[in-house]
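Re: [ENG-882] Designed sequences occasionally contain unexpected residues at chain ends

Forwarding the minimal case from QA. Structure tokens:
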């Protein structure tokens, strides 16, 4: 789930005026209601205006199966943060929040969302994260369609750098996709949502976790996760950005888990020099898939 402001900006455009930034640092700007109101999430469940005695909830940024993300103000340090609220379920013991916090805390890189704290208690389970300006890559693609090759090249370089930091500590992200990529500025693209991050290797009891359309074939069929599966998901993400559509034509008559691994790659029409990179990252055989270092050097080599 992405911690983001709720007004889309095309953050890759250098001449944009960042009204979002003003709203980000004044989270109650433009809100006619009292900042002491009780906030409500997408399920209409009321939440306290203050979390842990210090975080004043402002507005909902997004929600999903794992919970919701809110913009809030830290009244102690006088800064704006994003609060990820975990959905309470049967057998919930705070492990999801703690696992995500520990995973993100092991990585120090500008391309990885920063986690400030984890809160486990009577108010529920929360992650306290940096509040990111900009907009998710998924929204950029939705609003603009296919992106210019050089913009996608720069996004790819930054994501590869972030992945290098993640893989260097023995972790894999496992959920790389446009909605988990935050375009904050021309020189900062951030990977978010570390809820599925885990050590490299097989999933627990062969579990398949993530978004099917972005999963590598070996993940869907064998439950194997590793740096190659992250690179495959990155390939799907970059293809979608430069082509404005997913890279595979799946069989509508089959369930996604059956149709995705056997789907045929649609040759890219607009990728230009990125075509070789995309073909390398989307190689079905993980042993033959382009490695991170080779991908990084390739993108550097085709730069203007």
């Amino acid at each position: 789930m992405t911690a983001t402001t709720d007004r889309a900006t095309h953050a890759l455009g250098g001449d944009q005026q960042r009204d979002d930034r003003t709203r980000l640092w004044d989270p109650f700007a433009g809100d006619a209601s009292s900042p002491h109101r009780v906030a409500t999430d997408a399920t209409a469940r009321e939440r306290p205006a203050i979390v842990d005695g210090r975080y004043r909830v402002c507005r909902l940024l997004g929600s999903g199966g794992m919970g919701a993300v809110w913009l809030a103000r830290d009244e102690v340090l006088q800064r704006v943060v994003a609060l990820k609220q975990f959905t309470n379920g049967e057998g919930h013991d705070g492990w999801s929040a703690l696992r995500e916090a520990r995973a993100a805390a092991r990585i120090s890189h500008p391309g990885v969302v920063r986690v400030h704290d984890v809160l486990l208690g009577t108010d529920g389970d929360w992650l306290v994260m940096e509040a990111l300006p900009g907009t998710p890559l998924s929204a950029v693609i939705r609003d603009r369609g296919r992106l210019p090759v050089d913009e996608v090249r720069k996004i790819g370089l930054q994501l590869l750098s972030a992945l290098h930091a993640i893989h260097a500590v023995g972790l894999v992200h496992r959920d790389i996709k446009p909605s988990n990529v935050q375009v904050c500025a021309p020189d900062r693209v951030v990977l978010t949502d570390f809820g599925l991050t885990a050590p490299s290797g097989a999933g627990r009891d062969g579990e398949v976790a993530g978004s099917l359309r972005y999963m590598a074939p070996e993940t869907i069929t064998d439950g194997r996760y590793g740096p190659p599966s992250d690179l495959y998901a990155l390939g799907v993400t970059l293809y979608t950005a430069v082509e404005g559509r997913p890279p595979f034509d799946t069989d509508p008559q089959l369930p996604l888990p059956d149709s995705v691994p056997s789907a045929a790659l649609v040759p890219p029409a607009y990728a230009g020099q990125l075509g070789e990179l995309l073909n390398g990252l989307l190689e079905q055989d993980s042993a033959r898939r382009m490695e991170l270092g080779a991908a990084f050097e390739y993108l550097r080599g085709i730069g203007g």
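QA comment: On inspection the terminal residues look reasonable. The longest helix spans residues 149-168. Proposing we downgrade this to a documentation issue.
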